[in-house]
Amino acid sequence: MLNQIEAFQPLNGASRERYVEDLIFRFEANDTTSTEKKRAILMILCGPYAYVMIRSLLTCRPLNEVTFKEIASKIKEHLNPEMNLSENCKFAKTLDDMLRDRFFGGIGDEAIQGRLPAEPNLSFDLAPKIAIAAETGHKYTEKIRAPKNEFALIQQQARNNNSAHRTKQTMDLVPAMNGGGCYRCNDDYHASRCKFINEECHFCEKIGHVERACFTKLREENNTSRKTSRT
């Protein structure tokens, strides 16, 4: 029964009270009590006019945080003056222009609001369709761009990991400065097999070698020795 609800069409003489009243009766008939489900059904079946209007009226809050009651109240505040007059008065062709301008003024997205005036022969029926298409296109573009950014980040991480791996491989092949085989401890085996790989040096306090194989200590001792010989 809920899928038989028609989209809200103000130009057909519909009023907010009758539309929401019919919706509430259908909720009762289908035992729909969840306010989240009521909100979802309204947003799916209300049609492009009401959907874009609701989004423009609630720009400061995500729709999933607004209750069905709040949405209905906002629609009433926004539409009732224009809709009640349009039901009993003969505006002829000016009604479309008045409602189009009212809709245009209620749009919260400046990009969409700036685009609509550039459309030739913009009517009240066409404006919501253009606004929805623009918003949908914007969301689709964001979804496309997000994976690209994630892929670029993954690539950068891979390059960093490869660089670190190459550096480690190079260091593992470098012998200690005093002629030993392992630059971590000066013992006679490859550095990749050294048990001091996670050891903290007591001299420079860096991880990966012991004091007897410390490059910093050896360099300072060499500098001290050269200074002593000069004096």
TrEMBL record:
Source organism, top-level taxon: Eukaryota
Protein name, entry field: CCHC-type domain-containing protein
Native organism: Trichinella pseudospiralis (Parasitic roundworm)
